[in-house]
Amino acid sequence: MIKHAVKKRAKWLGDSLAVMLCVVLLGATTAQIFAGQSPDEAIEEIAELAEAEWLDGNPGQALHILGPGLGTHPNAVRLQKLRADILATASRRHQEAVDAYDVILDAYPESLKVRWAKWSVLLRAGQQDQAIAEFQRVAQLDVNNPIVALRLAQELRKVDRLEESLEWYEKAVSMIPDMVGWRLALARAKLDVLDGRGARDEVEHVLRIVEPGSPEEAAAHGLREVIYGATKERGRRFEPILSPGGTAAERKAWSAIRADAWRLFDAGRYAEVEPIYRKLLALKPNDYAATHELGMTLLGLGRCDEAIKIFETMSGMDPSDEVYADAFFRIGRCLMKMEKWTEALAYFEILYDAALEFDEKTKEVPPKADLRVLNTKTIAMWLKRVKKHIPADAMPKQNPLLPVVDPDAPVPMTEEELYHKIATERLNPAQQIYTRASLMGRDADFSMFRYVIPANRVMRDDRPTGTHEFIPIEPHDTFPNTQEEIYLMFGLVTASYDEMPLSVECFLETPRSNANQIPLARDQVIMNMGDQTGYFIITRPESGWTPGLHRCGLYVGSELSAYTHSDEIRFRIIPETS
Q1: Which stretches of 267-375 are DSSP H helices?
Q2: Where in the sequence is the domain holding 104, given as residue range(s)?
Q3: Last residue in a domain, options 141, 166, 198
Q4: What does the pLDDT look like over 216-274, one tens digit per residue?
Q5: Structurally, how many domains does the chain consist of?
Q6: Which long-range contacts (CB under 8 A, 24 or more apart) does 7-10 make?
Q7: What is the C-alpha to C-alpha distance for residues 249 and 247, in angstroms, rounded to an integer?
Q8: What is the pTM of this model?
Q9: Of 129, 334, 501, 511, which one has the greatest count of Cβ atoms within 10 A?
Q10: HSE on the CB side for 166, CA within 13 Å?
Q11: For the chain, the helix, strand and coil percentages under 3-state DSSP, each to the nearest 5
């Protein structure tokens, strides 16, 4: 047994010496080959030799080739960058790659290529905060690139840094003010930090510039309903109070004066009760009933401006439907008194839609006798009064695909009459939800895609466990119009549990979407069980790339629809400079 062990150790030492000798000979040979060349020529040939080995699947051999070259040319950025790239593709050597990129950035802090490469390594390694910090440096350098600002805003939202995200959304929109989808994302960002008025202004601006019946108009109307409080969504920063807040002394003080406030309010003594309500709200800011009564008090004092601001704060609370609808109506009436007819119209339209929906829901089951409900006829009358004061050219555009709201319209058909009409008429297929607008204005920052990185190339790293990982090479979001292929390398939140198709569809992104626009590229991959990374290939169109921004929608499944639309990624094409 001892003899066998000695032989085995001797064999191991012999193999080790052989490997070391090969490395020494390789270094000596490399130095001899490039000894008679200029430094630039030698650096380039060393890089080409190492890169050939690397791309042939021998990263260890490539690093051995680079060793003597970096010893001779320690400041050669070409060799330093190649070594860092090789380390980035080697299993479990992410930190070495980051350190190698940092060496280059210490000497050349404005190198965008190196910063993009470092960012992609940090992102793949799951170091989210460091990746965001690096991408912020990219954004500070590439100040005229709108999709960098937009992506940074999206990445900040993923880690709930909403206030910082809002700043970058504003920068992105300031670069392309007419990009409707981006402005709706900005409105959503403002809503999430509870800036309801700012969000409303952004959506109203969108509704003024979009075409009637366009997909963007439908997305804007949906977001407007959320902003105005037609749903239970209040924004991410909203914190519902599930138990009494404040100290015991504050709750005792609140309960001691609450009844006095109601008695004064009920008696119409508004000047006396106003300071009491303000003290109540200082003790319990989320008391929606006191907030509503303070708004009514200010109306009684003839201070419409202040009343509107008080009523609007209720969107950050959780009031009952009855109280919130009344607040909506009071705001509309205030705006009418202030002759802000267009703003008042938005409130009454939402109330009218809510009244119609309530009537439909309670058609067969009438509401309780003591429940206060929206009266469709009454709201229609107020709508008619408001519209009389709005010039035709200032009236919001009507969606031609939707029926015109007519307060004087006859009673809707009965269910039997409707069935008879459907049976006797030829019906056209309903228009599907427009795919490219399905994420506009939605809180859709979380999907099954953990990251998506555009790159020039992709490399596969086979691990000893039998799994593999795809790695982006030369990541960036800007490509010349001569680029033949763009790789969209992605990582999933969790490994695929079964065979699963994923699809991508790319369009030229313009301020106005066109439902008949032909996609520039499509691709589909099948994820096998256990796969967590993959890539799409976006091939150059036969007619060539169109310079500008390109948006790619990512879909879970082989069917491309609004229901399978999971995420999006953007890149831009620029003319190649000579």
Answers
A1: 270-283, 288-300, 304-312, 321-337, 341-361
A2: 18-141
A3: 141
A4: 888 888 888 888 766 667 777 766 554 455 667 777 787 788 888 888 888 889 999 89
A5: 2
A6: none
A7: 5
A8: 0.69
A9: 334
A10: 16
A11: 55, 15, 35
